[in-house]
Amino acid sequence: MKQNFSMILLRTVIILGLPFIFLGSSTEKTSPIPKWKQLFDGKSLKGWNIKIRKHDLNDNFGNTFQVQDGNIQVRYGQYTDFDGQFGHLFYKSPYSYYLIGVEYRFVGDQVKGGPGWAFRNSGIMIHGQDPVTMQKDQEFPNSIEVQLLGGSDNGDRSTANLCTPGTQFVKDGKVIKAHCIESNSKTFRGDQWVRVEVLALGDSLIAHYVNGEEVLRYNRPQLDAVGGAAEGTLLKGGSISLQSESHPIDFRKVEIINLEKYAKDPAKLQEVVQKLMAEKRTAKQ
């Protein structure tokens, strides 16, 4: 009699518990869409560090990086000549798995002495080195550059291209050592706002998006190979910075979704990324 009663009690507990088990499983399978974190507060450069070539860390030579009208502005009003003083504005924290969104526009004229290739040229540097480790005369951090370009009056000029200061990558199964490759984005002329997003998943995948459209993807970002090796040290993450390359530019939004907590769960990571990229985010003029 005791055995029968015990079995009945066990079955009752299991049956009553089933709805809660299934409810818990259902909840776990559906991951909420994570929220954007604003890296730029719209008021100041709090949380950012500055490194300009030929100057010490956080010497904001010529007030190159400033905040006006709710934008990060890169300006050269105090320069008499650009003189190769490439600059970078570094966010304080490194990231590895993330989606970053930046809205930018080119304005005005290029400063005297800026190289011809730097006309309407800037960039988002990702998976980069710590600015503390940069040499005083170093032009660019070792990083993956998501190149931002504006069009001239004539001809095509894509944006969200890829350049590789001190780095290389793999595309379509081949190691690519070319310094820059073009995306398949359209050309953006004048002072219109453009939204570029970059999906970076550690050392596995990086994809570029322009106004909600994917324009380039590749994998295995890495430092330049040494000693005759085919591949270099993989870049799993690193610093994020915005460039100063001699043409005035405004950044009105710099925001990020940290995907690190999904890094060890490929199914959830895929689910969250699919939800995020299903929304087409464009820059409003």
Quick summary of this structure?
By secondary structure, the protein is of the alpha+beta class. It contains two helices and 17 strands. It has two domains: 1-30; 33-278, Exo-inulinase, domain 1 (Jelly Rolls).
Mean pLDDT: 91
Largest sheet: 10 strands, antiparallel
- The domain tally reads 2
**CATH-derived topology of the largest domain:** Jelly Rolls
Distinctive features:
285 residues, alpha+beta, Jelly Rolls, 2 domains, ten-stranded antiparallel β-sheet, 14% helix, globular
Question: Which helices and strands appear, and what pairs or packs with what?
Answer:
Layout: H1 2-29, E1 37-38, E2 48-52, E3 65-68, E4 71-74, E5 87-91, E6 97-106, E7 121-128, E8 144-149, E9 161-163, E10 167-171, E11 174-176, E12 180-181, E13 194-201, E14 205-210, E15 213-223, E16 239-244, E17 249-258, H2 266-278
Antiparallel strand pairs: 1-17, 2-5, 3-4, 4-17, 5-16, 6-13, 6-17, 7-8, 7-16, 8-9, 9-12, 10-11, 10-15, 13-14, 14-15
InterPro entries: AL/BT2_dom
Protein name: 3-keto-alpha-glucoside-1,2-lyase/3-keto-2-hydroxy-glucal hydratase domain-containing protein
GO molecular function, one term: hydrolase activity
Describe the structure.
The structure is a single chain. Strand 3 (65-68) and strand 4 (71-74) form a beta hairpin. The termini are far apart. This protein has helices spanning 2-29, 266-278; strands spanning 37-38, 48-52, 65-68, 71-74, 87-91, 97-106, 121-128, 144-149, 161-163, 167-171, 174-176, 180-181, 194-201, 205-210, 213-223, 239-244, 249-258. The strands form two sheets. Strands 1, 3, 4, 6, 10, 11, 13, 14, 15 and 17 form a ten-stranded antiparallel β-sheet that branches. It is 14% helix and 34% strand. With 285 residues, it is α+β, with helices and mostly antiparallel strands. Mean pLDDT is 91; it is low at 1-27. The protein has two domains: 1-30; 33-278, Jelly Rolls. GO terms for molecular function: hydrolase activity. Residues 35-256 form the 3-keto-alpha-glucoside-1,2-lyase/3-keto-2-hydroxy-glucal hydratase domain.
